[in-house]
Amino acid sequence: MKRALICLVTLGSMAAAAGEATYVFRSEEDAATPADATVCAQSPFGSNVRLGASLWSIKTRKHNGRVVEEQRKKIGRATACLELTNVMFPQGLVQNFYVRFDLPQGAYVAQGTCTVSSNAVPQPFIILAGCTLRIVSGPAGSLGGMVTSSSIFNPLRRPGYSTGSIWTLQEYLLDAAPSHHDDEDD
Prior knowledge:
Elements: H1 2-17, E1 19-29, H2 37-41, E2 49-60, E3 67-83, E4 94-103, E5 106-118, E6 127-137, E7 142-153, E8 164-173
């Protein structure tokens, strides 16, 4: 009992010292940034869809949060690996997803699932989905965290719709004052 209490106190102390960082960025499928097959080879499931993307910082309106610039500055690249089990993308379909984000502060690998919200808005076979992923590895000092998305998949490559996502990456850090994650204000 005493040993368990000491472990809980120690873990609680470590959690209190952890810092937190949140990043919001856009990914867009990009032929100039092909998927890295070695990333998908590390996936814990067999992926049959591989996507390469450029990562972009975004700009939002201060008073309401609306995105006004989706590709402010290129900040990195990503490889996404999907286990697609139904090409009709029915609403509610849950699929395995594995991704590596290469960002200025380092590489993050995350895995989890994406769920189809719609397969007909704004047109048939424009797929809207949301992903919830656990960070399985990150740069030095990262304790892990999660990555979520609001995603659009355009499998028919219809003009006017890009395959891409708005991502929120939330990580917990070993150091409460993470100097390696800080950068300039916009």
